[in-house]
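Hi R.,

As promised on Friday, here is the backbone we talked about, encoded as structure tokens. Could you run it through your design pipeline when you get a chance and send me back a sequence?
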């Protein structure tokens, strides 16, 4: 199936879920876990020469921009506007409970001297500004990416509401164009915090913006004959080739920041769109294989808790392979079922009482 507006894809969209995305999230979290496990006590791989964790997070970012934009555009089209309050309500119930429970656990372990925290680590963590804080402790260091996501959630829906869809997409496109120059200017010392290139919002947010722009252009692209032919031609293999090449170019920062990262973002956006549209093909069926979808569903939970256990800087037994992988997975599963799912059920119960039933065009 190659029609994005097909009944199957449309039914997924109506439920707020799109085929293949959980499978891609599963691959992303595997990349992150593998990269972090390298060098831990007992892990068979001691060194890695590819930026697999960086790629995993980048996939998450492009998916986030693509998915959130599709949902916001659908709301805008159906009701004529975007309810910021409802958007933030739903995001808060999805993200905050497990996030803040994890921070409380880390703070408690730090009080017991079981983990080490740096100065102000907790302040930056609870305010979702870790991506502007360096150096920082390993146990909370990964929260930089969640900070970037939260900053996106604050900016993008408000931008669409104020600017409208068309001008909002132009703003996102301008940001994509300017971001490489921001990275290079930061690398050369013209802008502050070069150590946070690829983490501060202005140096990584173009990956999310690329997903946003793709979502905005999706219908137009699908209606364009040459784009349909491209997706089914051998030339489309250039997209995964660009992604693979990008795993190695971190050794040449200027080229990586200015050329490779923007190209990788576009390639990932095309791959993600292709996977959603062609979800009933051979690759699509693999991405929608139930065990892979399950891992993708747990990806936020796994990412949130994994650095407590997958820590190459520690020799404690719970940070040694394979116990570290098992404990990270157990913590993620516990978070999903004991914290996240109950809070999502509560969200669904409260939502009709708080927001009522919206009518089309209102």
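Update: got your reply. Pasting your designed sequence below so it's all in one thread:
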């Amino acid at each position: 199936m190659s029609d994005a507006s097909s009944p199957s894809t449309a039914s997924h969209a109506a439920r707020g879920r799109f085929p293949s995305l959980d499978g891609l999230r599963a691959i992303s979290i595997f990349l992150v876990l593998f990269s972090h496990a390298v060098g831990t006590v007992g892990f068979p791989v001691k060194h890695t020469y590819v930026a697999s964790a960086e790629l995993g997070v980048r996939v998450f970012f492009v998916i986030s921009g693509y998915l959130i934009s599709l949902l916001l555009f659908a709301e805008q089209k159906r009701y004529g506007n975007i309810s910021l309050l409802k958007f933030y309500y739903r995001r808060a119930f999805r993200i905050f409970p497990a996030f803040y429970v994890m921070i409380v656990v880390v703070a408690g372990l730090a009080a017991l001297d079981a983990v080490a925290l740096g100065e102000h680590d907790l302040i930056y963590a609870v305010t979702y500004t870790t991506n502007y804080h360096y150096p920082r402790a390993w146990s909370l260091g990964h929260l930089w990416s969640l900070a970037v996501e939260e900053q996106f959630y604050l900016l993008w829906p408000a931008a669409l509401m104020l600017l409208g869809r068309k001008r909002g997409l132009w703003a996102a496109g301008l940001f994509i164009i300017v971001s490489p120059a921001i990275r290079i200017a930061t690398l050369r010392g013209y802008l502050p915090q070069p150590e946070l290139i690829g983490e501060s919002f202005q140096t990584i947010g173009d990956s999310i913006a690329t997903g946003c722009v793709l979502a905005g252009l999706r219908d137009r692209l699908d209606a364009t004959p040459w784009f349909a032919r491209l997706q089914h031609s051998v030339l489309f293999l250039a997209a995964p080739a660009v992604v693979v090449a990008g795993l190695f170019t971190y050794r040449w920062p200027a080229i990586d920041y200015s050329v490779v990262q923007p190209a990788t973002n576009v390639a990932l956006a095309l791959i993600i769109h292709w996977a959603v549209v062609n979800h009933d093909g051979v690759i699509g069926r693999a991405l929608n294989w139930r065990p892979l979808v399950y891992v993708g569903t747990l990806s936020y939970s796994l990412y949130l808790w994994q650095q407590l256990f997958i820590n190459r800087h520690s020799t404690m037994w719970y940070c040694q392979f394979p116990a570290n992988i098992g404990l990270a997975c157990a913590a993620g599963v516990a978070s999903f079922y004991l914290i996240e799912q109950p809070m999502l059920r509560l969200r669904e119960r409260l939502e009709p009482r708080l927001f009522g039933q919206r009518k089309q065009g209102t």
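One thing I noticed while checking it: The CA atoms of residues 163 and 171 lie 9 Å apart.

Thanks again,
M.
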